[in-house]
Amino acid sequence: MMETELFQAVLNLQSPWKITKIDFISESRLLEIWIDFIPGSEFDCSKCFHQGCKGYDTEEKTWRHLNFFQYRCYLHCRVPRVTCPNCGVIQVDIPWARKKSGFSLLMESLILIMAMDMPISKVHLC
Ligand SMILES: [Zn+2]
Prior knowledge:
Blueprint: H1 2-10, E1 17-25, E2 30-37, E3 54-68, E4 71-84, E5 88-91, H2 105-117
Parallel strand pairs: 2-4
Antiparallel strand pairs: 1-2, 3-4, 4-5
The structure holds zinc ion (ZN).
Zinc ion (ZN) binds near residues 47, 50, 86 and 87.
């Protein structure tokens, strides 16, 4: 599907990450993108970098991403936790956001750039 490939390229998603669904809600000025991983994928431990950790469970998360023109954009994904032989059960790193952040990395960058030039109370995101 063309738009899936386009957004996958824009977000620089590499295997095993892939876009599974895109909702474009014109009247709400909203773009929602669902990202998932290929079932059975193995991941590196985010703490000790042990390779080939198997999936344990997942947790649904949402991040505010950069606007797509005048449309607010949110990313959704079930983020896997894996079983690492050294660290136990641990959440994997995802390429588009830091752990425990509700913003994508690009959104955080925009906020920091805006905050450098204006009082933080003047930084509006939508
Ligand atoms: Zn580990």
